[in-house]
Design brief:
About 40% of the residues lie in helices and about 15% in strands. The protein is built from 7 helices and 6 strands. It has a 6-stranded mixed beta sheet, with helices on both faces.
Length: about 200
């Protein structure tokens, strides 16, 4: 079992700046996002306990965030498809305000965790199930410190279930771009720290 799981949200993309939902949409880091990734790698390289393995969502913004971290520790990142972001099908690239006003996305999700957005979107339950399973599998496969580079909504859902056993509390676990959260799993999971950004 891993001693620590260091959860990293990817660096900034244009959709973050503009308030649009990019789940399965593959978006590159902005200049600021690339700088955030480099600063995160520099900060992590000073840890007393080195990162021994790094798992990453297949989307470009996560792979680009993971690259300088992996380089700092001289390890190869491992792509894990279940760490991808919550894809919302035909509603991808929609402003958050329109998702609420026009589609009542959050209202539908709260009422029915199995609601799937049109056009092949995932349900909250589907995202939560794959994310929690991925994190637990990674944790069980390693000792020492392991980094996971993933996405805001997916990480929030996983933390809500792991820590509170309640996916509907995911709004309390939203994390900033290139923030760091250290999760310790076991009989009573907890976080050593949450959403740290002072390194940026």
């Amino acid at each position: 079992m891993a001693e620590h799981l260091v959860l990293v949200r990817h660096g900034q993309i244009a959709a973050n700046r503009e308030g649009r939902w990019h789940g399965s949409t593959d978006s590159p880091l902005t200049w600021r996002g690339s700088r955030q990734a480099k600063r995160t790698a520099k900060h992590l390289s000073k840890r007393l306990q080195p990162i021994e393995k790094i798992y990453v969502s297949p989307l470009d913004r996560c792979r680009s965030t993971a690259a300088p971290i992996a380089s700092a520790f001289k390890i190869d990142p491992v792509i894990h498809h279940d760490l991808r972001e919550w894809g919302i099908g035909a509603w991808e690239d929609t402003p958050f305000s329109d998702l609420q006003k026009t589609h009542d996305f959050m209202g539908k999700v709260r009422k029915d965790p199995h609601f799937e957005p049109p056009g092949g979107g995932e349900s909250l339950a589907q995202v939560t199930t794959r994310m929690v399973a991925a994190i637990r599998q990674i944790n069980a496969s390693h000792e020492g410190a392991v980094a996971i580079v993933s996405h805001g909504a997916s990480l929030a859902l996983a933390l809500a279930v792991i820590l509170d056993n309640d996916a509907n509390r995911w709004g309390q676990y939203m994390v900033d771009n290139c923030s760091l959260t250290e999760l310790v799993l076991g009989d009573n999971p907890y976080v050593n720290f949450f959403n740290r950004t002072e390194h940026l």
